[in-house]
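hiii, so i know i said id send this last week but things got crazy w the move. better late than never?? heres the sequnce for the chain we talked about at the cafe, plus the structure i predicted for it. fair warning i was half asleep when i ran it
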Amino acid sequence: MCIEWAGEQDWDRIKGYAKEHGSEVLLGVHSVHVDEKWKVTSVLSIASYNDNVEMVKLTLEAGFDNKEAMYLAAQTSMKNSDNSTILRLLLEHGLDPNIDLQVEGLVEGIYNLLMSAAAAGHIDHAIALLDHGANVNKTMVRPDGHVVSPLAFTICFGGHDYFRLFLTRGAIPTTSDVLYVFTLCLKACKGEDPRLSRDVAIQIFATFLHLGKPDSDVVRDKFNLAPPSYHDPTIANITKHYLQGRPFCCFVCEALTAASRSKLHMCPCRNVAYCSKDCQVKHWKEHKVQCTGPLNERGESEAMVKKRSKTGKGVAAGEADVGVAEGAVAEGAGATGKNGKKGKKGRGKKK
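okay and structure toks below
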């Protein structure tokens, strides 16, 4: 009865009935035949579909605990709303963020909740799942037998923010992920992926190598598998720098170029590069204990000393305008010399 009223969105009637007969009337679950499959429906799932936070909360507080219905409510909420409140309520009331309904034989599908969050495109949902213990490395098996990870799944939807989030939350790239990233990013650079632009593909690729740190031998092998006609110059340059152990993007934000010029700024230690002074300063507290660049007793690099001597002003450690990154990956960048500056051509003698 309450489920029928929920379908009519007669929420006041449901609340009145629950108040009169007890909140357990909200716990009913019915099976319905949809698209040649049986699915469960409930007050909870219908309230989630309609983004009715109050009714979802009342139903959960009444003791609702049907796994399949809670899973479907989460899926529905993520698909229909950018508000993560309902998802967080479900998680706080017992929804397992790593639930695998394939294994339990309850639902046929290939998406776990983290993948569904990526497909929906609202990053707050993914953060909520991760905050409640979602396993960012939990894979699912597609009907064709291929194993899909949340990391690889995000690329299908052009989700650079999701991709970066998963890597910072502990995603470990697999060999399949490396192949998947190369394949989709190179296809996108050729304009063959309608959901992924070239710019986003390059962003994802740089972030993947910088944060994911996949095995170099695997990267080399998968890159060489790509047909020469698909080799993108920027992807190739990023790969080359990665395999040589050289910086190819801003250490903080993965930008490939500086804001005011086509090349990055290189730290004196030559191990990290930055797109701006802000990113360098942000990272300095962490990097200064690892930096192998020449620093004097005041904690200044050679570049800092030069700047101080020119301006006559003291420069705080980590705030110097460091040298230009050697071999920056910006397209069209010319060959660089020892200090990242283009060498001058020799002039012939006048006759």
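btw The first strand starts at residue 29 and ends at 34. thought thatd interest u
miss u guys!!
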